[in-house]
Amino acid sequence: MNKFNKGVLYLLLVILIASALFVFQYYLFASTITDLRTLPTSLLIAVIVYILTQLIKRFIQKKMPWYNWLYYVGIIAIIIPLPLVSTEGDWIFSVTRYGTLFLLLPPVIEFILLLRKKPPVS
Question: For 99-118, what is the mean pLDDT?
Fold first, then answer.
């Protein structure tokens, strides 16, 4: 991977981590079922930015490691409360809170692996 692609990858990872933290923070502080069902525009924008950044990252990388598929669990955790109109209970809060952590896992793992990778000796 050349320096430009590596720099772009670091930038994309920072965007992914920032948007995942924003989404996780929203669900962490959500206190009512209405908060889970009526999502603010800023949260929806953060989710769209996250998904688009993941797609851009796929074009830059040659192969997709297994951990890059974990973010689908986070996306599902965001979608689960939407159709469940009559559902009540604390389990839905647990699903969204812990599920959105899966948005954060892939970029953090990749960021750590990139930092640990030694540059080639020339």
Answer: 91
Q: Which two tokens stand for residue 78?
A: 């965001």
Is the Cβ–Cβ distance between 119 and 50 less than 8 Å? no
The pTM assigned to this predicted structure is 0.87
Render the burial of 85-122: b for 16+ CB within 10 Å, e for the rest.
eeeeeeebbebbeebbbbbbbbbebbbeeeeeeeeeee
Whole-Å CA distances, 43 to 53, 99, 103, 118: 15, 15, 13, 36
- Provide the token pair at 105: 């896992």
HSE-CB of 75 using CA atoms within 13 angstroms:
13
The residue among 119, 118, 114, 121 whose CA lies nearest residue 61 is 114
Q: What is the model's pLDDT at position 120?
A: 58
CA atoms within 13 A on the CB side of 66: 0
**Which pLDDT band, with edges at 50, 70 and 90, does 3 fall under?**
confident
